[in-house]
Specification:
- The protein is of the alpha/beta class and about 450 residues long.
- It folds into 2 domains: about 300 residues, UDP-N-acetylmuramoyl-L-alanine:D-glutamate ligase, CATH 3.40.1190.10; about 140 residues, Protein-Tyrosine Phosphatase, Chain A.
- The protein contains 15 helices and 17 strands.
- It is globular and about 60 Å long.
């Protein structure tokens, strides 16, 4: 199958209702999946919702399950570089050929379902149906599925989760999910259903109250970070960090994690609890060697990822204030740069001021730019916000991302600070993905 065929499928998907918009209904996706034979019920599902940390947690769950010999399907969003990344089998993204074939298998039914509803199937709904169909056809032993937006009305929530994971809940997508953490938590809580195990990361009090109320209402079993499981200790190590974890079934010592930051240690604790709950209800300690193998193999691209050295260039997909604060804390703890220059491109519907305020303490200078997304905030508008936070002498503008990265590298090397300098590219998943394409793939 030619690369052009994938481009044609991407164009067909792009013509659909964008995933950045939400029409709160499961009617369309339910209708489509019913026509396809309800593949979402063919394999057990672990759903992962939350505001930040979903993708990293889902990837760790996937890696752990595969270390125990299971065939795993993983569905995450959004993608960094290619839409094929969203649907993975055995840890690997679908090939272009298989992705195109999966689309063509459901394509005849899309317009049929479109005609039955006031709104056509969206981009995200179509991809979600493809994922569930692929997982049923493979077949996989378990599907690890990241929720797109919210929970209750998210297309992924057509499957009843055997394990429902909720990572930390914060403010994001307020236009669709609500203006308070409690309102957003109520949407996220929709993935918790009767009979499932709800694995809850550490939450604010208002989010925890909502989530625990849902657990009680539906009769789910709960596992809470900091009570039933959690991080015992962590220390920096060559190539990552070493963590000791308290799991649902016992303790796991000297686990090497290649991902940096305290937040990733907490994501690992959540992932381990989810796997314990899935494999045996959390009543027995898992094989330590297999747990170590799973975590050692876990990766999460564009999550505090080093993509170049001399100077060090890091890429991170933080796109909201909570994510930026976690990123800043990890940088302060895990790195000691003499000079750190930020390249920041943010989407117009995000809290740009909140993101920049969180990053200001760790950035010496910032180059504002934009990604190719039509939702990207204009660099001049972003610069105005940045100047009010950093001051004019610490802010510059480079509308093209490639130029912004080049300028940031040059600034990082000023005054002989080569050995202790760094560049951070962040602000959105699109910005991070395009930076990886430029720096890792070498596609200028």
């Amino acid at each position: 199958m030619s690369a052009q065929s994938l481009a044609e499928v991407e164009a067909a998907l792009a013509d659909r209702w964008p995933e950045s918009q939400l029409d709160p209904s499961l009617d369309r996706i339910t209708d489509l999946l019913h026509v396809l034979g309800d593949p979402q019920g063919a394999v057990p599902v672990i759903l992962v919702a939350g505001t930040n940390g979903k993708t990293s947690t889902a990837r760790m769950i996937d890696s752990l399950l595969r270390s125990f010999g299971l065939r795993v399907g993983r569905y995450t969003s959004p993608h960094l570089e290619s839409v094929t990344e969203r649907i993975c089998l055995g840890g690997d993204p679908m090939t272009d050929e298989r992705f195109v074939a999966a689309y063509h298998e459901i394509a005849p039914y899309l317009h049929l379902v479109d005609a039955r509803h006031p709104h056509p199937l969206s981009y995200f709904e179509t991809l979600t149906a493809m994922a569930y169909a692929v997982f049923a056809d493979a077949p996989v032993d378990v599907a690890v599925v990241e929720v797109g937006m919210g929970g209750t009305w998210d297309a992924t929530n057509v499957a009843d989760a055997q394990v429902a994971v909720v990572t930390p809940v914060g403010l994001d997508h307020q236009a669709y999910l609500g203006d308070t953490v409690a309102e957003i938590a109520e949407e996220k809580a929709g993935i918790i259903v009767a009979g499932c195990v709800a694995v809850l990361a550490q939450q604010t009090l208002e989010a925890a109250e909502v989530l625990l109320t849902r657990v009680a209402e539906v009769g789910a079993t709960v596992a809470r970070e900091g009570i039933e499981f959690g991080v015992v200790s962590r220390s920096l190590a060559v190539g990552g960090q070493v963590i000791d974890l308290k799991g649902l079934g016992g303790e796991y010592h000297s686990v090497h994690l290649t991902l940096l930051g305290a937040h990733q240690a907490h994501n690992a604790a959540v992932a381990l609890a989810a796997v314990e709950a899935f494999l045996g209800g959390g009543h027995e300690t898992l094989d330590l060697d297999l747990v170590r193998t799973g975590f050692a193999a876990a990766t999460s691209p564009a999550r505090l990822e080093v993509v170049r050295s001399g100077p060090t260039v890091l890429v991170d997909a933080a796109h909201n204030p909570d994510g930026a604060r976690v990123l800043a804390a990890a940088l302060a703890e895990d790195y000691s740069f003499d000079r750190l220059v930020g390249v920041v491109g943010i989407l117009a519907d995000k809290d740009a001021r909140g993101v920049l305020e969180a990053l200001e303490p760790v950035l010496d200078q910032v180059v504002v730019t934009r990604s190719s997304s039509p939702r990207a905030l204009d660099p001049d508008d972003l610069a105005a916000v940045a100047v009010s936070i950093f001051g004019a002498d610490r802010v510059s503008v480079a509308p093209r991302l490639a130029d912004a990265i080049d300028e940031a590298i040059g600034r990082a090397e000023e005054d002989g600070a080569f050995s202790g300098s760094g560049v951070l590219v962040t602000g959105s998943v699109v910005t991070a993905g395009e930076a990886r394409t430029l720096l890792v793939r070498g596609k200028g």
